[in-house]
Specification:
578 residues, mainly alpha, Na+/H+ antiporter like fold, Rossmann fold, 6-stranded parallel beta sheet, 25 helices
């Protein structure tokens, strides 16, 4: 078992980077790696079904992350896009493919099943490719997301319909499935936040990760037992938590598992490709895959153009979503179990879908080489997609900054590692999320890739320095406005190249000094001038001393000289006014 696991991982490590180097994408790399390990490669694995069932958890986690993104206005916009793009694509594709299969002599019920299965695209493939190509914010990326979401939701009624098409009744009564969905929504809406809050208070990061996986997998299992798609359960839980304070931490915790399991899923698809069936029916399978890609691509292009998407974007959309999807395997397996689909035909259909998946990265790569879509910079930014300001640390200091920004309707995203602080602040209407700012995946989930400014307001000095170091390493050009607890903290942050620095006691202490000067008889204007001059001088001194702050003797000498220089400066200023 251990040797097989090492071979499985080793194949991915060798083949996938090579595939990316050749600009074919990671998806095709995983497929090739799986094919190399399968019965028609070196024969390490002869049965892909078990691996495929396990790897389907990657699709489950993917749907959970999609649900997390659908909050408030974006959910409303997505619903509109689903009606404009997703529903027409699904209905027209089912009619065309189902009609074509029926004309070939297949029964009406089976033709409908095949049409429904082949109308679905691969969420895993398409989103992976769009993510690699950074196309989510493009016109075809947004339309593609709506189409995929429509298809994923449609899987639930399709699976429920199969027993009726097979002449039987579903294993689970429809009312039980409906009750399970309603129950999950209620529990997710009112029960998950208290549970995650309880775990977050323990301040044990790995325990929160375990709780996240427990929630997602538990919802998926509950839906599966109720005769509903596991993916739907994860998706509904994601939507329920989309506007919660845990959103970004949930995304960062799930992301590594999702990526690993999706890679396993693609390798399992490659493992399951029966080259024997391909060899016995080469023309049928190749013709079927080409026809599938052509029909779906044409429908997608037509729907996109009808909704005003430029031709270049429409063609890329057709290339991205023209393949068959992972849920086709599930539908074919269920149809076979119900006696609707003969094993021989099922093998040909699975090979056709797999071949269409393998063609997708090549199609997109070829399309990208000859098609130049309109620049993303010229597209309108959707609500929620504007380049954010991120505030790391939302204690007293961060809250004051946030209140000023909020009063001017300047949007920001705040991250705080103390759940008690998050729970308290959110009661007053502030949008702040629970998360660890020293983790790159948390910062990415908060939108740092597109951020225009990063405000570092963390209380703890070591955490603040670790966060600044992380950002400077990965985002060297991102402006950092930082809070410093004291002079030594300032030196450490300046070493890391922060853009702007504010010592938290500087303004308050010098303001108090100004009041003292006024009490001692200094005119208001003169007192303010003295304080301004002192602040400028000390700021200049701080940056000068940061060059040698590790040399204690030089630092002491500099401080003594600075005191003498400042005294002379004030004496000269006083003499000039006499």
């Amino acid at each position: 078992m251990l040797i097989n696991t090492l071979l499985f991982l080793g194949a991915a490590v060798v083949v996938v980077p090579l595939s990316r180097l050749l600009k074919l994408g990671t998806v095709l790399g995983y497929l090739i790696a799986g094919l190399c390990l399968g019965p028609y490669g070196i024969g390490v694995f002869t049965e892909a079904e078990g691996i495929l069932h396990f790897a389907e958890l990657g699709v489950v986690l993917l749907l959970f992350l999609i649900g997390l993104e659908l909050e408030g206005p974006r959910l409303s916009q997505t619903r509109t896009a689903m009606l404009r793009f997703g529903l027409p694509q699904l209905l027209v594709t089912v009619a065309l493919i189902g009609g074509a299969v029926y004309l070939l002599g297949v029964s009406a019920n089976l033709a409908l099943v095949i049409g429904l299965a082949l109308a679905l695209s691969s969420t895993a493939f398409a989103l992976q490719l769009m993510g690699e190509r950074r196309e989510f914010s493009t016109a075809h990326g947004q339309a593609g997301f709506a189409v995929l979401l429509t298809q994923d939701i449609a899987v639930i009624p399709i699976l429920a319909l199969l027993p009726f098409l097979g002449g039987g009744a579903p294993d689970t009564p429809v009312w039980i499935s409906a009750a399970a969905v309603v129950g999950l929504v209620v529990v997710a809406r009112f029960g998950l936040r208290p549970l995650l809050g309880y775990v977050a208070r323990s301040a044990v990061p790995e325990l929160f990760t375990a709780a996240t996986l427990f929630v997602v997998m538990g919802a998926a299992l509950a839906m599966s037992e109720a005769g509903v798609s596991m993916a739907l359960g994860a998706f509904l839980v994601g939507i329920a938590l989309a506007d919660s304070e845990f959103k970004h931490q949930l995304e960062s915790d799930i992301e590594p598992f999702k990526g690993l399991l999706l890679g396993t899923f693609f390798m399992a698809v490659g493992l399951g490709l029966d080259l024997g069936v391909v060899a016995a029916n080469p023309l049928t399978i190749v013709a079927g895959a080409v026809a599938l890609v052509a029909i779906k691509g044409a429908v997608l292009v037509a729907v996109a153009r009808a909704n005003g998407i430029p031709l270049a974007n429409a063609l890329l959309l057709g290339g991205l979503l023209a393949q068959g999807g992972e849920f086709a395997f599930v539908i074919f397996a269920e149809a076979g179990a119900l006696g609707l689909l003969a094993p021989g035909m099922a093998g040909v259909l699975v090979a056709t879908v797999t071949l269409s998946m393998a063609l997708t990265p090549l199609l997109v790569w070829a399309a990208g080489a000859v098609i130049r879509p309109p620049s993303m910079d010229n597209e309108p930014i959707q609500p929620g997609e504007a380049r954010p300001i991120i505030i790391a640390g939302f204690g007293r200091f961060g809250q004051m900054v946030g209140r000023v920004l909020g009063s001017l309707r300047i949007n920001f995203t705040a991250i705080e590692s103390s759940f008690e602080q998050v729970a308290f602040v959110r009661r007053f209407g502030h949008k702040v999320f629970f998360g660890d700012v020293t983790r790159l995946d948390t910062l990415k989930a908060a939108g740092i890739d597109n951020a225009r400014l990063f405000i570092l307001a963390v209380d703890d000095v070591d955490t603040s320095v670790a966060c600044a170091e992380l950002i400077r390493h990965h985002y060297p050009d991102l402006p950092i406005y930082a809070r410093a607890r004291n002079r030594n903290h300032s030196f450490r942050l300046l070493d890391l190249g922060v853009t702007e620095l504010t010592r938290e006691t500087m303004l308050s202490s010098t303001e108090l000094a100004r009041h003292v000067l006024e009490h001692e008889g200094y005119p208001v204007g003169q007192a303010e001038g003295i304080i301004r001059q002192w602040r400028r001088y000390d700021e200049s001194l701080l940056r000068e001393q940061s060059q040698f702050h590790t040399d204690e003797s030089s630092l002491v000498a500099s401080a003594q000289q600075a005191a003498r220089d400042l005294e002379k400066l004030f004496e000269a200023d006083a003499s000039a006014k006499r």
